């Protein structure tokens, strides 16, 4: 029996680029000699994406889709896709043709060689500027420094997961999903394949600086508790310094009998330490907010429409 492969593609306002993407993907899939289905996850698009997906399914039932009830964000769209995907292997890729479909045979080859997780790793960033590259580099450096699993270098959401790995991903019930970290966390035999990122075929990237910053904070907070703990050490050091300083003052006053005016240093230290306190409170808030998100136990995503697929009943979205 031929292997069953599911291609999961999150799409948000990709109506314009979709026909091009499908046109490029289909011949590659046909050449693989496997039993394939494509599962689009419409992440609450406000353009004609959903209509395109319905048409696509009508013309070829191997193109299926689920439509989320609103825009939940790419990470959640991926989680929904993995929940619905039923192939022996699942390939995740972007719907803007930045992830070259021509790489799929290489992914399958690694999978057949026994790897359970095959990660595409990006070689160059075609359209991103120096600022975004710098930003991405510093995030990865920080992550390596303080967070638990090693993030594979240059990893993007272009990868193959074996059924075992997909089932593992589906068992992770957390709401804040930082997929890159999760792929590493689940373990199994990993390998990476370098590829060159293409330019977007149409539309524009939906990531702006604020969104990227939020994403970075999510990643760090869900894989590290060091930001939470560092303040007690800092507090210890500061208290020790303050004690020493007090001692210096005491001795000085005893020896020379006069006390010094110290207004500027007073103001500076007050401002500095209120700043430190606010930062530490904020960090605490980040973690408390996530505890709050988790205990609400809202469903991770809601499905508005199923196009040519049904929910696998043995699993429920946690
Ligand atoms: N995407 C999504 N939901 C969102 C934002 C993006 O499903 O809220 C999809 C988008 O349609 C594309 C993929 O995620 O298929 C990558 O998005 P984008 O190209 O904007 O990100 P970039 O390539 O700049 O990282
Ligand atoms: Mg893109």
TrEMBL record:
Domain Glycosyltransferase 2-like: 6-150
GO molecular function, one term: transferase activity
Keyword set, alphabetical order: Membrane, Transferase, Transmembrane, Transmembrane helix
Gene3D superfamilies: Spore Coat Polysaccharide Biosynthesis Protein SpsA, Chain A
The name this protein goes by in its record: Glycosyltransferase involved in cell wall bisynthesis
GO CC annotations, alphabetized: plasma membrane
Segments traversing the membrane: 230-251, 263-289
One Pfam assignment: Glycos_transf_2
InterPro entries xrefs: Glyco_trans_2-like (IPR001173), Glycosyltransferase_2 (IPR050256), Nucleotide-diphossugar_trans (IPR029044)
Source organism: Kaistia soli DSM 19436
